[in-house]
Design a protein that fits this description.
- The chain is α+β, with helices and mostly antiparallel strands.
- Helices cover about 70% and strands about 5% of the residues.
- The protein contains 24 helices and ten strands.
- Strands 6-5-4-3-7 form a five-stranded antiparallel sheet. It has a three-stranded antiparallel sheet with strand order 8-10-9, covered by helices on one side. A two-stranded antiparallel ribbon has the order 1-2.
- It starts with a helix and ends in a 28-residue tail after the last helix.
Length: about 850
C-alpha cells in the first residue's frame, strides 16, 4: 500500500502539469489567426491590388502563425510523451489494485478471518475507492480539455484546407502565388499533425479512464461483499457458543494476561508508541492534524454557544409552565460539549476511513460514548426523581447513582484493556465478576424498591400496580439473563445484551422527556373550558398546530429507529424497512404502498393547517376592506377552502398509489353508492353549494325557523349551524334549508317593522294616547325616522280600546327597542293618567225555585 500511495502521488504531480500545458496551448491557438488570407495581386480577380507594405504584413502574420502552430505541436508531442510514460505507471498502479483485491478476496474466503481484519480491509477498499474517484475526476477534466482542443484544431484544419483548395482551384501561374500555396500546404500539414497527436492523447486518456472505471466497479462490488460478510460474521460470533468457558482458564493464562497489561501500560508512557500511532493515522493520507484541531475547536465553540442559547431559553418568561421542557433543555445544555466532541470525532473518523483501521480512535470514541450515556443517566435521575416525576427515597437514589458510576468505571476499564491485549481471560473474569455484582445489586435494589413503592405520591394506584411488577421483572431479566448467558458460553451475546439494555434505557429516558415536553405544549388547547374551546382553537396558530403534529410523528419514528439501533440494527435494517414500506401492494388495478398512507396523512395535516391559515388570511387581510357583505365574504372563503381541501385530497390519493384511472374508478363506485346509501349526504352537499352560490341564507343572517330565532354562524359541507339567542346551536341539514320554508329577516335589508299593541280603558283621551305613543317612538334613538312610526286605532275591544304602534328598527336592536318602548309606555301612561285596560267580565248569578207536585196517597 505504501508503494501504491507513493506512485499515486508521483502520478498526481505529473497529471497536474497537463492542464497547465493544455491551457498554454489553447491561449496560443486563440492568439494565432486560424486562416491567413493574402490580398489579391494586381491583374487578378481580387477587389484591389496589394501594396508592398500589405504583402510584408501578410508574410509576417503567416510566419507568426506558423511559429505558434509549430510551438503548439511541440508542446502536444511533449504531452503525448509524458502521457505515454504515465501509461506504465498507471498499469503498475492498476496491477497493484488488482493484487490488493486478490489478497483481500482470499481473506474474505477464509473462514478463520477475524472481523477486525475484515473491517480494516473494507476501510482500505473505501479509501482506495475515494482515491480512484478523485483520480477519475481529474482525468475526466483533462479529457474534456483535450476534446475541446481537438474541436478547435479540427475547425482550423477545415477552414485552412478549404482555403487551400480554393487557391489551388484558381491555378495561379506567378511565383508568389505558388509560394503561398506551398506555405498553406505546410500549415495544413502542421494542423494535421496536431490532429493526430491530440487524437492519440485523447485515446490514451479514454482507455485509462475506462480501466479505472472497471477497477472502481470491481472494487465497489468487493467492498459490498466485505460489508455483508462483516455483518454475517458479527452475527455468527454473537451467537457462537464457547464450550466450558471456565475450563480454559488457568493461573498461567491469567498471569500472562496481567504481564501483557503491565507491558502495554508501560508502553503507553513511551514517545515511540504515540509516534507510531500518529504515523498509522498519517499514512492514510486523510488525516491532517492541524485541520483536525481547528475543526474540533470550531465544533466545541459552536456547541458551547448552543449550550448558552439553551440557558437563555430556560430563563425566558413563561417557561415556568413547561417544567419538562426546562428539564430537557437542562440535560441538553449540560451534555452539549461532550456530545459535540464525541459526534465530531466519530463522524470525522468515519469520513476519513480511519475508524476501523486505527484502534486508538475507536477506543477513544467508545470511551466518550460511555461517558456521555452515563452523564445523561445521572442528570435524568435528578430530573425524574426530584422533579415532577416519582418521589423516591434518598437511599434508592444513592444506590442508582452508585450503579451508574460503577458501570461507567467498569466499561471504560474494559474498553482500555480490550484495546491493549484484546479478548483475554482477564476480561472474562472481570466480566463475570461485574455480572455477579450487578445481579446481587439488582436483587437488593428491587427488594427495597418493592417495599418503598407505596410512597409514590404522584402515581395513581392503578398505574402503580402496573409499573412496579414491570420494573421488578425487567430488572431480574437484565441481571439474571446476562449471568445465565455468560455461564452457558454465550459471553459475547451477554455483553451485547447488557450494552443494548443500557442504550435502550437511555433511549427510553429521552423518549419520556420529549413526550412530556411535547404534551406540555398541547396544554393550552386541551385545558380550555368546553364553551370556549372552539374559539381558542380558531385563535390558535395553525403553524404551531401543524408543527406539533409533525413533531409527534418525528418523535414516534425516531423512538422506533433508536430502539432498533440500540439492539444492533444497522443501516441495512433501516433500508429494508423502508423497502418494505415502499413495497407495492396490488389490489386490482391499484398499487398501494404503506409509506403512501404516511405521506397522505402528512399531506392532509398540511392541508388542514393551510386551510386554517388561508381562512384567516382571507378573512382578516384580503376581504376585510373589500366592501363585500359578511355572507359574500364567507361564501368566497368557503369555496376557496373547498378547493384547497379538494387539491389536498387528490394529492394524498396520488401519493397513496392511486392513479388517475384508479381515482376515476373509485369515483365511479362512489356514484353507484350515491344511488343507494349516500343520497342524503350528497343531497346535503349539493344543497350546501347552492347556499354558497345562490346565497338565500348567508353567514350573519338572522333567520326564523318555526318559532326559533337565531343567527347563521357557519355553512358546512353537510349542514348549517344556527346560533339561537338562547346560545343553543341548531344543526340543520342543508337540504332542509333549501326545500323547507325559512324566514330570513336580514336577506336584503337589515330593517324590520315591529308592532306593539296596547289597550286603554274606555273613556280615555284617544288623541293623547296617539300623541304619547308617537312621542315615545320619536325620542328613542334606535327607532328609524324613515319610515316614520305611526299609530293605528285597531279595534274596540271587549274591555279596552286597542291601539297599535308600528315602528321600524334594525335586526340588531329590535328586541331591545320593543322592551324600551314598553317601559316608556307604562311610565308615560301613568304620568298622564291614561289607564291601561285589563280584561273585565261581568258575572250575573240568577237563582230559580223548582216546583214540586203533591205526593199522592194510597187509598
Amino acid at each position: 500500500m505504501k508503494l501504491i500511495t507513493q506512485r499515486a502521488r508521483k502520478h498526481t504531480m505529473r497529471n497536474a502539469t497537463l492542464p497547465l500545458l493544455l491551457t498554454l496551448a489553447l491561449l496560443s491557438i486563440l492568439i494565432g489567426d486560424p486562416t491567413i488570407v493574402y490580398p489579391a495581386q494586381e491583374g487578378t480577380s481580387g477587389p484591389r491590388a496589394e501594396t508592398d507594405s500589405e504583402s510584408q504584413t501578410g508574410r509576417q502574420s503567416f510566419e507568426q502563425t506558423m511559429k505558434v502552430e509549430q510551438e503548439n505541436l511541440r508542446q502536444q508531442k511533449e504531452q503525448l510523451d509524458a502521457v505515454q510514460l504515465l501509461k506504465e505507471t498507471s498499469s503498475r498502479e492498476l496491477d497493484a489494485y488488482k493484487l490488493q483485491m486478490s489478497v483481500h478476496g482470499n481473506l474474505l474466503m477464509l473462514p478463520t478471518s477475524e472481523v477486525a481484519d475484515l473491517e480494516k480491509a473494507s476501510d482500505d477498499h473505501k479509501a482506495t475507492l475515494n482515491a480512484i474517484a478523485v483520480r477519475l475526476g481529474r482525468l475526466r477534466e483533462t479529457r474534456e480539455a483535450i476534446d475541446r482542443l481537438r474541436l478547435q484544431t479540427e475547425e482550423k484544419y477545415t477552414l485552412n484546407e478549404k482555403q487551400l483548395a480554393e487557391m489551388k482551384a484558381e491555378r495561379p501561374k506567378d511565383v508568389s502565388a505558388k509560394a503561398r500555396i506551398t506555405q498553406f500546404a505546410a500549415l495544413v500539414q502542421l494542423l494535421s499533425n496536431q490532429r493526430t497527436t491530440i487524437s492519440e492523447m485523447l485515446d490514451v486518456y479514454s482507455k485509462r479512464i475506462s480501466r479505472l472505471e472497471q477497477t472502481q466497479q470491481a472494487l465497489s462490488t468487493l467492498t459490498e461483499r466485505f460489508d455483508q460478510e462483516v455483518r454475517i460474521r458479527k452475527k455468527q460470533d454473537l451467537f457462537k457458543r464457547n464450550v466450558s468457558p471456565l475450563a480454559s482458564l488457568g493461573f498461567v493464562s491469567i498471569k500472562d494476561d496481567f504481564s501483557r497489561i503491565i507491558e502495554q501500560t508501560a508502553l503507553l508512557t513511551t514517545v515511540d508508541f504515540w509516534r507510531g500511532q500518529a504515523r498509522s493515522v498519517w499514512v492514510t493520507g486523510w488525516f491532517s492534524f492541524y485541520m483536525f484541531l481547528f475543526l474540533l475547536l470550531l465544533v466545541y465553540i459552536l456547541f458551547v454557544r448552543v449550550s448558552h442559547y439553551c440557558t437563555v431559553c430556560m430563563n425566558r418568561p413563561g417557561m415556568g409552565s413547561h417544567p419538562w421542557t426546562v428539564h430537557t433543555l437542562r440535560l441538553i445544555q449540560r451534555s452539549l460539549p461532550l456530545m459535540g466532541v464525541t459526534a465530531f470525532l466519530y463522524s470525522y473518523a468515519r469520513v476519513r476511513l480511519v475508524y476501523s483501521g486505527v484502534p486508538l480512535i475507536r477506543t477513544v470514541v467508545h470511551a466518550l460514548l460511555v461517558l456521555l450515556l452515563c452523564r445523561w443517566a445521572l442528570d435524568s435521575l435528578k430530573v425524574w426523581f426530584n422533579g415532577d416525576g416519582l418521589s423516591v427515597s434518598q437511599r434508592l437514589q444513592f444506590r442508582l447513582r452508585v450503579l451508574i458510576h460503577g458501570v461507567r468505571a467498569f466499561a471504560i476499564a474494559y474498553i482500555i484493556i480490550f484495546w491493549m491485549i484484546g479478548e483475554s481471560s482477564v476480561l472474562f473474569l472481570s466480566r463475570v465478576f461485574f455480572e455477579l455484582v450487578l445481579f446481587v445489586w439488582t436483587v437488593s435494589f428491587l427488594k427495597a424498591f418493592r417495599l418503598t413503592s407505596v410512597n409514590f405520591p404522584n402515581m395513581k394506584s392503578r398505574r402503580l400496580l402496573i409499573v412496579v411488577p414491570l420494573v421488578v421483572g425487567l430488572g431480574y431479566t437484565i441481571a439474571g439473563g446476562g449471568v445465565l448467558l455468560e455461564f452457558a458460553g454465550y459471553g459475547k451475546l451477554a455483553l451485547h445484551c447488557y450494552m443494548s439494555w443500557g442504550r435502550s434505557i437511555v433511549v427510553l429516558m429521552w423518549a419520556c422527556l420529549l413526550f412530556f415536553s411535547l404534551r406540555e405544549w398541547n396544554v393550552p388547547l386541551t385545558r380550555v373550558p368546553k364553551g370556549e374551546k372552539s374559539d381558542a382553537i380558531e385563535k390558535a396558530s395553525p403553524i404551531k398546530w401543524l408543527f406539533l403534529k409533525l413533531l409527534w410523528l418525528v418523535w414516534a419514528g425516531a423512538f422506533l429507529l433508536c430502539l432498533v439501533f440500540s439492539w444492533g440494527g444497522t443501516q441495512a435494517i433501516v433500508v429494508g424497512l423502508v423497502r418494505l414500506l415502499s413495497h407495492p401492494i396490488q389490489i386490482g388495478n391499484m398499487n398501494l404502498r404503506l409509506v403512501g398512507f404516511v405521506y397522505a396523512g402528512i399531506i392532509l395535516l398540511c392541508t388542514h393547517a393551510a386551510a386554517r391559515v388561508l381562512r384567516r388570511f382571507l378573512g382578516e387581510r384580503i376581504l376585510t376592506d373589500s366592501g363585500l357583505e359578511l355572507g359574500v365574504r364567507e361564501s368566497i372563503t368557503t369555496v376557496i377552502i373547498y378547493l384547497c381541501w379538494g387539491l389536498g385530497i387528490l394529492l394524498s390519493l396520488n401519493v397513496m398509489g392511486l392513479s388517475a384511472t384508479s381515482i376515476a374508478v373509485a369515483f365511479g363506485a362512489l356514484s353507484i353508492g350515491l344511488g343507494f346509501g349516500l343520497q342524503n349526504i350528497f343531497n346535503n352537499f349539493v344543497s350546501g353549494l347552492i347556499l354558497l352560490f345562490e346565497r338565500p341564507v348567508q353567514v350573519g343572517d338572522v333567520v326564523q325557523i318555526n318559532d326559533m330565532w337565531g343567527m347563521v354562524t357557519k355553512i358546512n359541507v353537510r349542514s348549517t349551524v344556527v346560533q339561537t339567542y338562547d346560545n343553543a346551536s341548531l344543526i340543520i341539514p342543508n337540504s332542509d334549508m333549501i326545500s323547507n320554508q325559512v324566514t330570513n329577516w336580514s336577506f336584503k335589508d337589515q330593517r324590520l317593522r315591529r308592532n306593539i299593541i296596547v289597550g286603554v280603558a274606555y273613556g280615555s283621551n284617544t288623541e293623547l294616547v296617539r300623541e304619547t305613543l308617537l312621542e315615545i317612538a320619536r325620542e328613542h334613538p334606535k327607532i328609524l325616522k324613515k319610515p316614520k312610526p305611526d299609530v293605528l286605532f285597531q279595534d274596540f275591544g271587549d274591555s279596552a280600546l286597542v291601539f297599535q304602534l308600528r315602528l321600524w328598527s334594525t335586526i340588531d336592536h329590535f328586541i331591545a327597542v320593543e322592551t324600551d318602548v314598553r317601559f316608556s309606555i307604562d311610565r308615560l301612561f301613568r304620568e298622564r293618567g291614561i289607564e291601561i285596560a285589563f280584561p273585565q267580565r261581568d258575572i250575573h248569578i240568577r237563582s230559580t225555585v223548582k216546583k214540586t207536585e203533591p205526593r199522592k196517597t194510597e187509598s
